[in-house]
Structure formats: C-alpha cells, structure tokens
Write a structure and sequence with these properties.
Blueprint lengths: L13 H9 L11 E3 L9 H5 L7 E4 L2 E4 L9 H5 L5 E3 L8 H10 L4
Antiparallel strand pairs: 1-4, 2-3
Keywords: Iron, Iron-sulfur, Metal-binding
Pfam family, one: Fer4_4
InterPro entries: 4Fe4S_Fe-S-bd, 4Fe4S_Fe_S_CS
C-alpha cells in the first residue's frame, strides 16, 4: 500500500525535503491531513514511529506531539498505531507557523 513504510528507499526523503523547502502539501494528495487532539493524547509516540519515513509528518514539540499538515498525506498509518484514538482528519487545517518550521529544519538531519 502507498502509505506503508518503504524500507527499500534507503532513507531517501527527496519528496519530503522538497515539501519542507516549499512548506506546502503535494497538490495531488486527495485526503486532508490528520491532526492530534492534544487533550486526548498520552504522548506515547506510537504515531511518530508509525508515520512512514517518506512523510515524516509527526514531531515531538515539548510535551505535545504534532502532525505537520504540509507533510501529512492523510494516510491512516498513525491512526492505526494510536492506542487512544486521538488522531482525526483535519479538514480545516491551517498552515504551520514559522517557529515549528524552524524546529523541523533543526531536526531534519535526524529524521
């Protein structure tokens, strides 16, 4: 399935890197991104580990775990991993703020 992890990719994230540089979602993605309801999240990081590397859309931000909508294809991989069902479709997503983009750029090499 297209949302499964691709081990054969050898860690290449050129599409992801381009999305980070452009700070934009792929135009051909039909599904809206996902969001994490922080009031329900237990910060177990299961979603972060379950997010396919080619998207790498989930980050720890202090005590919160967040999904970057510009990097999220809307696939169900994180939803399937979440033990408390706190991940929802985000039809009304807003662009990611500058401070979080700086965090992403600082952690991009380790992603």
């Amino acid at each position: 399935m297209p949302w499964e992890k691709n081990e054969a990719a050898g860690g290449e994230t050129s599409g992801r890197d381009a999305r980070i540089a452009a700070r934009a979602r792929e135009e051909n993605w039909k599904k809206p991104p996902r969001r994490i309801e922080s009031a329900e999240c237990i910060t177990c990081d299961s979603c972060l580990r379950g997010c396919p590397a080619e998207f790498g859309a989930i980050f720890d931000r202090g005590l919160d775990v967040v999904i970057i909508p510009e990097l999220c294809s809307g696939c169900p991989a994180c939803v399937l991993e979440c033990p408390v069902d706190c991940i929802y479709v985000d039809e009304d997503w807003t662009p990611t703020d500058e401070s979080l983009w700086k965090h992403i750029e600082l952690t991009a090499d380790g992603a």
